[in-house]
Write a structure and sequence with these properties.
heterodimer, A: about 170 residues, alpha/beta, 4-stranded mixed β-sheet, 9 strands, B: about 270 residues, mainly alpha, two-stranded antiparallel sheet, 11 helices, 2 strands
Chain lengths: ~170, ~270
C-alpha cells in the first residue's frame, strides 16, 4: 500500500479496514492484500482491487460493500471500484494481521513455501500441531483447502498457497 | 481504457479478438461440461474438487469474455451465452458430451473419459498460458500470469487421477485406455489457431502450434512413461476444426441448455 497523504485518502483506507471478507469476518480486504490502489481526485475515489481467485463469486459482494463503505464517507461524491489482474494476487500479500485473523476464524494461514515435490504444509490453527493430513486441496471456496488434525482430531481449512512462481 | 493503446492496427486487433474467442470459448464449454458432473462425481471429496476447478475455469472464461467486452464486442454475458454455434471457436474436445444420458435424467457418464479429457486439456492449457505470459497483447499477458497461479492445482489434480487409475485394477486400465483413444480422435484442433493462425503468431500474440505441441508432449512424456504408455499423436488433419466454427451436434445441445434461462428475457438483469 502506498503511503497516504491526502486526508480523504486516509479516511478511505480506514473505511476499507471495515470491509470484511463476506465469509470470514475476522479479516478485511486490506488484511488480505486485495487493495492495490486508492486514488482521490477531489471528491471522486478510484479503488483498484486484486481478485484472490478470478472466479470467486464473492467478488461482486465485496465490490458492493466497498462502494457502500466509501460512499458513506463525508466529502465523497463518487466511488469507482475496478478489479485488475496486475500485479497478480498472491497469498504472500496477506498481512500479519490477516494471518492472525484467519487463525482466529479457524483457518490456517497460507504456507510461505512449497516442497520440492510441489506439496506444502501448514500447522493446525486450533492446537498448533504439525501432525495434520490434507483431505482435499479443494475446499468449500476456491481459496481454501480441507485438512484434518490428527492430534486434536479437528477438521480445519487452510488458505491455499498462491504464487506466481508455481 | 488504456488496454486499447497497443492495438496499433486493425489487423492486430482482429487477430487478438480471434485468439481471445478461442481461449474464452474453450474454457467456457470445458467448464460447462464440468458443471454437468456436479453431484455425480465418484465420491464427495471429488465432487467438491471438480466443482471448485469448474468454478475457477468459468472465472477464466468470464475474464476472457470481459477482455472482449473491453474491446467493444458486446457484454460478457451476451458473448458467452448468445453467440450462434457457427461463431464459436472452441476446440471439439471440450464440446463432447460427458457420456450417454441427460444430466437431469439418468446420466451414465464415463469418469475415465472425464479424467483423460481433463488431464490432456489442462496440460495444453498450461502450455498455452506459459506462452501467453509473453503475449504482445498486454491485457492477455497479465491475465495469463493470474490464471497460471490457479491451474497449478488443477493440473496436479488431474495428473493424480490419471496416474492412479492407470495403476489401478484391470478394468480401470482398460477403461482409461479406451478413453485415451476416444480423446485422441478429438485432439486435431486442440492447438490449432484456425484460419488466422499466421497473423496470430506473426503479431506475437502466442507461439505457433508446432512449438506448443512440442512442449505439451514434453510435459506428458514422463507421466505416460510412468504408466507404460506412449503420448498420443495428434491427428494431422482434423475432420472438424472448431477454431473455424465447425462443430458437432453435441455442442449445439450444450448451447441450447446453457442459454435456456437467459433467452427467456435477454434484457433482464440477472
Amino acid at each position: 500500500m502506498p503511503a497516504t497523504v491526502n486526508p480523504l485518502e486516509a479516511r478511505v483506507l480506514e473505511a476499507l479496514k471495515d470491509v470484511k471478507d463476506p465469509e470470514i469476518d475476522t479479516v478485511s480486504i486490506i488484511d488480505l492484500g486485495m487493495v492495490e490502489k486508492i486514488a482521490v481526485q477531489e471528491a471522486v475515489v478510484e479503488i483498484k482491487i486484486l481478485p484472490t481467485f478470478i472466479g470467486c463469486p464473492a467478488l461482486n459482494i465485496i465490490k458492493n460493500n466497498i462502494e457502500k463503505a466509501v460512499q458513506s464517507i463525508d466529502g465523497v461524491e463518487k466511488v469507482n471500484v475496478d478489479f485488475i489482474y496486475t500485479p497478480a494476487w498472491t497469498s504472500d500479500r496477506i498481512t500479519d494481521n490477516g494471518r492472525a485473523g484467519l487463525k482466529e476464524f479457524g483457518i490456517a494461514p497460507p504456507p510461505s513455501f512449497v516442497e520440492s515435490d510441489g506439496s506444502w504444509h501448514v500447522d493446525c490453527p486450533y492446537c498448533g500441531s504439525t501432525y495434520v493430513t490434507m483431505d482435499n486441496i479443494f475446499g468449500p471456496t476456491a481459496c481454501r483447502s480441507i485438512l484434518y488434525c490428527k492430534t486434536c482430531k479437528n477438521p480445519f481449512e487452510a488458505m491455499k498457497l498462491i504464487s506466481t512462481s508455481m | 481504457m488504456s488496454e486499447t493503446t497497443n492495438l496499433v492496427t486493425k489487423d492486430f486487433k482482429e487477430a487478438a479478438i480471434n485468439l481471445l474467442f478461442q481461449l474464452a470459448d474453450d474454457d467456457f464449454l470445458f467448464s460447462y461440461r464440468g458443471s454437468e458432473w456436479l453431484g455425480l462425481a465418484p465420491h464427495i471429496e471429488e465432487d467438491i474438487a471438480y466443482s471448485s476447478i469448474t468454478q475457477d475455469t468459468m472465472g477464466h472464461a468470464s475474464m476472457y469474455y470481459h477482455l472482449l467486452e473491453d474491446l467493444g464486442l458486446g457484454t460478457a454475458d451476451q458473448l458467452s451465452h448468445l453467440r450462434p454455434l457457427e461463431e464459436r471457436k472452441n476446440c471439439i474436445l471440450v464440446e463432447r458430451s460427458n457420456g450417454e444420458g441427460y444430466y437431469m435424467d439418468v446420466p451414465t457418464y464415463d469418469w475415465a473419459f472425464a479424467v483423460v479429457r481433463n488431464y490432456l486439456y489442462t496440460t495444453a492449457k498450461k502450455v498455452k498460458i506459459d506462452s501467453l505470459k509473453n503475449s504482445s497483447y498486454q491485457p492477455l499477458a497479465d491475465a495469463a500470469i493470474k490464471v497460471n497461479t490457479e491451474i497449478y492445482y488443477h493440473l496436479l489434480h488431474w495428473k493424480t487421477w490419471f496416474v492412479q487409475l492407470l495403476n489401478s485394477t484391470q478394468e480401470a486400465k482398460q477403461r482409461m485406455q479406451a478413453a485415451i483413444k476416444t480423446v485422441t480422435n478429438d485432439l486435431g484442433d486442440l492447438f490449432s489457431l484456425g484460419n488466422d493462425a499466421d497473423k496470430i503468431v506473426s503479431f506475437g500474440l502466442i507461439e505457433k502450434e508446432s512449438v506448443l505441441i512440442g512442449r505439451w508432449k514434453e510435459q506428458l512424456e514422463p507421466v505416460f512413461r510412468s504408466v507404460q504408455l506412449k503420448v498420443p499423436e495428434i491427428p494431422n488433419a482434423p475432420s472438424l476444426n472448431g477454431r473455424n466454427g465447425e462443430h458437432t451436434k453435441q455442442a449445439q445441445e450444450a448451447l441450447d441448455t446453457l442459454s435456456e434461462v437467459i433467452r427467456f428475457d435477454t434484457a433482464a438483469a440477472w
